[in-house]
Amino acid sequence: MKKHTRVAVGIAAATAAITLAATGTAYAAVPTDTTALRNAVTADGIMQQLAGLQAVADANGGTRASGTPGYDESLEFVQTQLEAVGYEVTVQPFLFNSFRELSDPVFEQVSPDPTTYVPGEDFFTAEYSGSGDVEAPLEAVDLVLPPGAQASTSNSGCEPEDFTGFTEGNIALVQRGTCDFSVKAQNAYDAGAAGVIIFNEGQEGRTETLNPTLGDQFSADLPVIGTSFEIGNDLATLLEQGEVVIHLQTETQIERDVQTYNLIAETPTGRDDRVVMAGAHLDSVPDGPGIEDNGTGSATLLETAMQMAELGIQPRNTVRFAWWGAEEAGLVGSQYYVDSLDKRAAKNIQLYLNFDMIGSPNYGRFIYDGSGDAFGIKGPAGSGNIEGIFEQYFASQGLASEPTAFDGRSDYDAFIAAGIPAGGLFTGAEDAKEADEVALYGGLSTFEGEPVSYDPCYHQPCDSMDPIGDGADADLYEALNEAYDGALEWNNEITNVNTQGLEEMADATAHAILTFAMSTSAVNGTAKASPNAMQHGERVGEHFRR
């Protein structure tokens, strides 16, 4: 589970200048009044941009995934608006490996208790899984049951030695924890497994059905699926009593070297040797329109850029906005961009701000832990200062916030690995909201006795402007909307975006971008992130996850 460690957030009056200390260096933010920009960047304006992205998806088979016409039209939707108000726009092409399922997958227990599991509910095909149709005995691999108290107590399948004595042709049952899912699947393949079932680890917040990705470089041709802790634990219990036979079937297509694009837009004014970057991934998953993930980040940056132009803001430092492609394939676009920078261009980037999912329907206010105080994984020098700007802003508005780890889960990963300070915001994905977070942010921790995640439609077709019409639980979404006094509604329709949370996060986004754009002080350093910040964890639903 992505832990959001509690921090005491003081409620203070807004100050004209904020002095923060991190990595031994004081950072004084220029006394910039961000009120006009914050007032101009509204949830309603962002929702109108999201309606445009939904229209693009509707016209292209319900998706805006990289490598599809829906993505290309999403890029054009953003590009046309930015060029019209004077931004210097660059479209950067690159290649990646695309993935799609060709038919519904099958997961069945043949014996001892014949059971047919439901795709999209009981299990998901791992993104970049190979194809296969296999019926074989199940074999457990180094499971930790009952699960340990802490996340990633299990390292099931992370070492080749875990498969010592594994019977070739069996299906491997492995548990979430510690390493990338692709490592588990590759080790299973190398040991002769005919298929792989990865189940969730079992701690609070790590029980739901996994929707994993293996990354676009995974090439082993075997079926790999993700399932819940309950199902995995039940299968493990049955194995203790005797043989369990499983039927797995997946039919997938991986297309190599598909062209897609990043979109980069710069302000025409500002110091080129002190660039403030702000980015969001523009692509959706193949299964849906991606309105919350990450239409919210993309639309918020677009609306911020448009309103900066409308207000005639001339930043002291160049502001460079980025909309990344192929994030859902494994952070490919942002990594390509950073790899393309020469030493001087990289040094000129003062900092990078990342906005990935900032309107979750059952939201929290989470700030990347640049200082490492909460999780022990710090970003490059200056990252703590970025975190501090967000913390101070929320405190000035009387709003609580919590840290979230620099765990490589989004497009900041390439920047911190290159020694560029980074930070940003996040409102939660597939993890369950905790009961004490309801007091901080509102919403629901349970509904009809079941835990409720921050985004119940994460990576599904119902991540849309009409989630109920696209298959979401109508009773749950009506309850969430009621809990937030109608904040999920826009134009009299319940959406997968919380406009209250979106407004709060958009204001913080505009505040941070303009504060750094007008700053006369340097935030960036040359020190790289702590080693743990550059380790890749598990990938869950296309995002990295430990």
What is this structure's SSE topology?
Layout: E1 19-22, E2 25-28, H1 35-40, H2 43-58, H3 69-84, E3 88-101, E4 106-111, E5 115-116, E6 123-125, E7 132-140, E8 171-175, H4 181-190, E9 195-199, E10 224-227, H5 229-241, E11 245-250, E12 252-266, E13 271-281, H6 291-310, E14 317-324, H7 332-340, H8 343-348, E15 349-355, E16 366-368, H9 383-396, E17 402-404, H10 412-417, E18 422-426, H11 435-441, E19 446-447, E20 450-451, H12 474-483, E21 489-490, E22 493-494, H13 499-517, E23 538-540, E24 543-545
Parallel strand pairs: 7-8, 8-9, 9-10, 13-14, 13-15, 15-18, 16-17
Antiparallel strand pairs: 1-2, 3-12, 4-5, 4-11, 6-10, 7-11, 12-14, 16-18, 19-20, 21-22, 23-24
Helix pairs in contact: 2-3, 2-6, 6-13, 9-13
What labels describe this entry?
546 residues, alpha/beta, 8-stranded mixed sheet, 23% strand, globular, disordered C terminus
Question: Can you tell me about this structure?
Answer:
The chain is α/β, with parallel strands linked by helices. It is 28% helix and 23% strand. It has 13 helices and 24 strands. The protein has helices at 35-40, 43-58, 69-84, 181-190, 229-241, 291-310, 332-340, 343-348, 383-396, 412-417, 435-441, 474-483, 499-517; strands spanning 19-22, 25-28, 88-101, 106-111, 115-116, 123-125, 132-140, 171-175, 195-199, 224-227, 245-250, 252-266, 271-281, 317-324, 349-355, 366-368, 402-404, 422-426, 446-447, 450-451, 489-490, 493-494, 538-540, 543-545. Strands 3-12-14-13-15-18-16-17 form an eight-stranded mixed beta sheet, sandwiched between helices. Mean pLDDT is 90; it is low at 1-30, 525-529 and 539-546.
